[in-house]
Amino acid sequence: MKFHLTVRWGHPRTLYHQAEVEAPGLREALERAARSLPDEVAATADLAELRPAPDPDERSYLEG
Predict the structure, then answer these.
(1) In a domain, 15, yes or no
(2) Cys-Cys with 53: which of 4, 31, 49, 62 at CB 3.0–4.6 Å?
């Protein structure tokens, strides 16, 4: 399963790190996401969001 990771980081200027993480479940995705963070992001991050990545083929607004 693919997950989308967004991490807010940086000081004094706020930046966002985004990445895709592939894992069989949320627990494994959290672990892989944490290990994948660059040191400079991890050092000043204050918020992280991990959610299932949307499947572009299953977006309801594309149904006609």
Answers:
(1) yes
(2) 4
C-beta of residue 37 within 8 angstroms of C-beta of residue 48: no
30 domain-assigned? yes
Distance CA 36, CA 39 (A): 9
- For 52, residues 6+ apart whose C-beta sits below 8 A from its C-beta are 1, 2, 3, 4
Question: Within a domain: residue 58?
Answer: no
Residue identified by tokens 């991490």 is 7
Domain count, the chain: 1
CB distance 10 to 48 below 8 Å: no
- The answer to whether 17 and 37 have CB atoms below 8 angstroms apart is yes
Regarding pTM above 0.90, the answer is no
What pLDDT, in 10s, does the model give residues 20-48?
999 999 999 999 999 999 999 999 999 99
